[in-house]
User: What shape does this take?
Amino acid sequence: MTGTSKYKRILLKLSGEALAGEKDFGIESRTLEFISKEVQELLSTGVEVGIVVGGGNIFRGIQGSEKGMDRAQSDYMGMMATVINALALQDSLERLGVQTRVQSAIHVMQIVEPYIRRKATRHFEKGRVVIFAAGTGNPYFSTDTAAALRAMEVEADVLVKATKVDGVYDSDPMKNKGAKRYDKIRYLDVLNQHLGVMDSTAISLCMDNNLPIVVLSISGEGSLKRFVEGDQIGTLIEA
Assistant: This one.
């Protein structure tokens, strides 16, 4: 591998809300362009990049179920929202000259590829960014869990969760100005303290398979590139 990355392959988890920018709903074009440029810069280090994108900027299945919808039905709607986000991200990346493929866990074959692990690996080897849509394809599982699952399936070295905050805190930094940020924390401590950075299924899956998680801010310009080059950024979650 050429370049300056300390990793061969990473799995980047983007929330749907990250694409909304300062808005409460939808896709904010400047934010989408910023994220795409960050990914483009990331590729310059030689690292292979997979992305799992959420759909909360359009529809969150669990919120639908809280309003009386059938949970499975509302989760399927959330999966479709992730496909919309994946297509938007694909278009934005390809306008920058980045080669991409979108693979979906549910069949939308007229628009995107079905998820096939070996095919995804081949795309990585050809230097393409693979965007994984529709979560795991099953209701009751979050896109965080999908990110953990895909990261292990494609043998990523690390799962990077890019959020609006710059790491894991002992309480909500948006509500508590005295919240303490961790540089490193164990999987079990995240679970026992109910820190909520990812759902418990995703954390447990990573813990059981010893996959490190890094939580960092997507809004910090160059933060992704600096991380893969070895800078101490965000919070590392490990055994």
Summary: The longest strand covers residues 9-14. The chain is about 40% helix and 20% strand.
